[in-house]
Amino acid sequence: MNREETARLLGAISAIDGRVVTDATVLAWQVFLSDVAYGDADRALRAHVRSDPARVTPAHIVAGVRVIARARAEARDREARRAEIAARAEVHHRRAHNHPDPRERVRALIARAAARWAAQREPAQNPLPEYHQRALDRARQMRSPAGED
Predict the structure, then answer these.
(1) Whole-angstrom distance, CA of residue 80 vs CA of residue 57
(2) DSSP state letter for 126
(3) Average pLDDT over residues 57-75
(4) What are the φ/ψ torsions at residue 126 (nearest 5 degrees)?
(5) What pTM, to 2 d.p., does this model score?
(6) Contact predicate 68/46, CB 8 Å
(7) Within 10 Å of residue 132's Cβ, how many Cβ atoms?
């Protein structure tokens, strides 16, 4: 937390227990709470006030922040485990019921669309009508300098 956040936190503490907060108090607390996020410190303060009648100290805030960090890490781990279990279950289901991997189906659709697109871009294999071909030949002869045929 920065100095302003520390002062805000101490203002809340002062409103709760009536302590006098000076610049020196803010600086002292800020030394101990410099690596703590304000939101976590605020949550830790609320948890402490609800559960413990003791006067709040920086140690109480730091301990509360550790509890919050641990709970976050456990929630992330639980979510990662859930995602891993869901992925394994999907693979098992596909194998058990002989379903292809959906990524392979998408790849096949893309390959088919690309082949259709390439086929449309290739020039037609049908020869030009005879009158059209004669007109092209005459135009080429007229463009070419004399004697180049």
Answers:
(1) 35
(2) S
(3) 96
(4) -70, 135
(5) 0.58
(6) no
(7) 10
